[in-house]
Amino acid sequence: MKKRKLAIIMIMAMLVAMNTITAFASDDNHGYAFNIKANYANTYSDSRYRQTTNTGNQWKVNMTYSGEGEGTITTYWLALYNNDHTLASGTHDVKQGSGAHYYNAKSNASQKDVCLGAENNNNSTNTYIVSGYWDEETN
Fold first, then answer.
1. C-alpha torsion sign, points 103, 107, 113, 116
2. pLDDT single digits (tens) 60-93
């Protein structure tokens, strides 16, 4: 009987603890792959919810593959997931294969659906595929 009471108390304690755990953002790797269009045309990923209000909670991009070639550069930014894809960070040139890059967001990205935006870093008539990982908030 004592073992049963102890087991019930332990289960209840675990349930209480599970209900009080806060969800925290972490540095995740969400895959992306899309076509970079010709002549600076923009491309966007699917949306992710950016929960934080801290602009210093950085977003991340890691371009692991570029059909334009090894070591080439593509321009990336964070955008709101709306019809206008409103800019939600600065634009940043990222070199393929250079690892993860972390950048601050603008305050308009707070508690909003955002997406990863990209374009060729130079005016070209070529299109190419890029892929890698990104995260809307990393800490």
1. negative
2. 999 999 999 999 999 999 999 999 999 999 999 9
